[in-house]
Predict the 3D structure of the following.
Amino acid sequence: MSTTSPIGVGVIGLGFMGATHIRAYAAAHAAGFNCPLVGVCDQATERLTGRVVTSGNIAKGWTVTGTGKIYAYFNPISVHDLGIQSLAKVFSTNRPAAPINHSTDASQLETAGEASFDGSEPSTGALTITPTGSFSLADTVGFRAIVKNFGTFNESSYELRWQVNGVNQPAINRGPIAADAVDTVTFQWNQAVNGSHTLKAWTVLANDSNPANDTSTISFNVGRVAGDTLYTFVVPNQIILGVAKIGSANKLAFTSGGQSSTIVEDNKWIVTDMYGGILDTSHLQVNPTTGQGFGFRDIAWDGRWLLTSDDTRIRRIDTTTFTEIASPIVTTINPNRGIAYMGPNRIWVSNFTTNPVTLFDTTGATVRTLGVPSVAPYGIAFDRWTSRTRGYLWYSEPSTTGGPVRLSKVDTTTGAILTTFNYSSFTGTGVSGGLTIITDHPAYPNAVIGLLVAQRFPTSLLIAVYLGIDSTTVGVQENGGQLPETFILSQNYPNPFNPSTTISYGLPTASQVSLKIYNVLGQAIATLRDEIQGPGAYSVQWDNQGSSVSSGVYFYRLEAKPVDGSAP
């Protein structure tokens, strides 16, 4: 687009041109305005694009390039200008699949258990590959593009085109979109495979005067990664505060503020199954503190009892009667809000940003402090599983309405936040609730899972988040630990899996080892080991990423012939 209108540039007290003004003037030139510093320039060959410059705005009219030094007026012109403002993968945290019923879905229970040599036939085990380890809609990944009309015209229609790894996908017809408005477009890749990929999307609009902002490109991964949402469920008509899994029982205990922040008598315990099915709501919270209408806050499981609090006292609650079973632990924090059980005689406690996060022993004595957190956690939990060598704290925050609900991994030495996952796509701005971390979910064996409460008045939401593999129980190190007394072949983990799984086995004596993968036709499709190995415990990973192996059931077969000639 062009115009013949001149541009006037007036100078007030020019005297000295500061760095800010030079940057602003340079930015104006970079945006396509080749005007002299002082005087008149012809706009006949220039165009206005509505860009933000280093200092001030070039936006359909005035721009101020400094503080009282230079003022410039650019005659506004009409343009067609459509572009992509943002592009993101959203499926893993915006459209979680419904939880799989693992008790009835036989395809998800394809296991072989542990097998060992009987002196005749080699050991075998069955394993199942599913298209992803995260979702029941395994081959679908969702994206979101936010398209903005940067121009001055209302546009009746446009196309959003996109491709994955250079392969064009079906174009999307959209419109109308008003001037300066945005259009949120969601779309899916239905042939997703595990691995790293590139998404490119671009807008197509007739007479678009600024193609520079039409295209956006992102990289994304397919497959379960830390932070992925496994499932969610709603606890209706209750302000849920804390959550903890009750021992080996597949039950969750919640503390509830009922439907009010002021009615103390409404505070109760709620027990559900792992997917939110209500099992019991008959127990009121014990000894509610006067004025604490919300009742008990965060809770934690210490191996015997539930730990919870609403003042300086950490209460120990029996899960049969839901009564206080032992004398409380009195701390120096009032109130104890976040509670995390670290291990025998060690309990972490937080109080938003009012007090330092503090580690207490079971007498209430301070062991050490971590400092006042940089965010305001509502719930905290201790993680001893995602690393073999150290533990971490996790915070659920914010503790007050107004921010996105997030989950943050925290260094227990420095208090620094290492990783943050954002769940505002479920909750919008709101308040987090309690947090607990488990490794014994019946549907996700040996996975480390965070159970995060998000308060959405007058109901609450539980979000089950994948945090990683339990490093304390999988990935046996070669030649580590006590020597096996017999030949052992263990069930692979994870199973089902995608893209990789680990097979562990043990040798009591040095052997010629062959470990192969077979399809259902009995054809060998991969050799994982073919060598002499000494006595010990071993593990090997089968990584299916990038191979042509399709989803289905496969078998692994271990043959071991002792090198001393003895019978296996």
Notes: Residues 1-76, 92-138, 474-481 have pLDDT under 50 and may be disordered. The helical segments are 19-30, 91-94, 424-427.
